[in-house]
Write a sequence for this structure.
């Protein structure tokens, strides 16, 4: 389990360093995700005998499942930040809430429709 | 005699109280969502945030002091984002064939998310800084805050707007998908991840593994595409 967590942190670490060193507009964890994904595929390519059900380091699958199974919890501290923006929200609550609700729901319907149509056609 | 004031001073200074409160609020949120039989509109994140906001307002503790402790939970967002590679890898056989279609859908969906948000905010007379904070609304919090800073928005307000979008998408998204008759789990996941980032992905993972993998893919692709394209488009129209 510790090995799995270390793998995740290493990928994030390299991602953060790369993002800063190369002035990439993409955040470190997203680069880390790409690195881990590429690493897992490369490992399958060159090391097909590796244990399948638990990708990469022992325990990686377990740690990933635990983190992603409780992903909602990780948003709670930032969400509580809503208390700080009380005045700003009170001033422009109408355009904000309309943009958030209509924009998000339109985006979901649109993306889903486009994706379903494209996938039906191209597999 | 127990010195309550001294205990309070200790609790206010130490991360222990904030961490404990966060985990307990999350467990209560899960319980409440279970009581509502996991109805899509009963989101555990909303319950937990509401409980903690009420606690902060009643106790008079400042958000900054609370976050000192709660940042240990917040920090795990980074490793969790990296961990999204694992479901993607497990479903790669599935994902691979539809990757080009997914990319096209995500980029056009991300453009709709940013465009509609900006247009509505502008039409209803929000200030330029607020409109700029609305533009990166559909991408995951850390990316969105960085983009908002680049285009003249308020990063803190963006964080709130991003989370609100995630909550709206995670709670009402499945209903919209049903109404639009989108039954393909891949398309459903992609839409949730594109519009509602990690909160939509959390919801998708709990419903269906295929949808979860595609939601993670949508979230990652949208973060990349928006981070690369939005500042350029913004400069083109604003400058």
């Amino acid at each position: 389990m510790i090995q799995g967590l270390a793998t995740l942190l290493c990928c994030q670490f390299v991602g953060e360093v790369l993002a800063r060193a190369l002035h990439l507009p993409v955040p470190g964890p997203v680069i880390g995700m790409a690195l881990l994904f590429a690493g897992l595929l490369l490992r399958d390519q060159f090391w097909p005998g590796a244990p399948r059900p638990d990708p990469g380091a022992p325990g990686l699958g377990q740690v990933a499942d635990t983190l992603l199974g409780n992903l909602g919890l990780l948003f709670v501290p930032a969400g509580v930040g809503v208390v700080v923006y009380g005045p700003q929200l009170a001033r422009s609550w109408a355009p904000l809430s309309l943009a958030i609700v209509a924009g998000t729901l339109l985006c979901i319907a649109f993306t889903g429709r486009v994706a379903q149509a494209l996938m039906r056609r191209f597999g | 005699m127990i010195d309550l004031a001294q205990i309070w001073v200790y609790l206010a200074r130490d991360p222990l109280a904030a961490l404990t409160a966060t985990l307990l609020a999350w467990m209560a949120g899960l319980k409440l969502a279970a009581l509502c039989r996991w109805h899509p509109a009963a989101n555990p994140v909303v319950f937990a945030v509401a409980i903690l906001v009420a606690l902060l307002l009643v106790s008079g503790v400042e958000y900054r002091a609370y976050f000192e402790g709660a940042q240990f939970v917040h920090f795990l967002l980074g490793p969790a984002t990296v961990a999204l590679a694992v479901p993607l890898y497990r479903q790669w056989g599935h994902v691979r064939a539809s990757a080009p279609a997914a990319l096209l859908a995500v980029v056009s969906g991300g453009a709709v998310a940013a465009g509609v948000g900006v247009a509505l905010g502008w039409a209803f007379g929000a200030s330029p800084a607020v409109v700029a904070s609305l533009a990166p609304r559909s991408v995951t919090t850390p990316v969105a805050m960085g983009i908002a800073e680049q285009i003249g928005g308020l990063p803190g307000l963006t964080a709130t707007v991003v989370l609100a979008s995630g909550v709206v998408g995670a709670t009402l998204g499945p209903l919209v998908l049903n109404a639009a008759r989108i039954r393909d789990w891949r398309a459903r996941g992609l839409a949730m991840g594109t519009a509602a980032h990690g909160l939509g992905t959390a919801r998708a993972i709990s419903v269906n593994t295929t949808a979860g993998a595609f939601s993670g893919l949508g979230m990652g692709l949208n973060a990349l595409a928006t981070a690369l394209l939005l500042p350029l488009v913004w400069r083109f129209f604003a400058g």
In short: The CA atoms of residues 40 and 56 of chain A lie 6 Å apart. Residues 2-74 of chain A form one domain. The radius of gyration of chain A is 20 Å. Chain A has two domains: 2-74, 88-123.
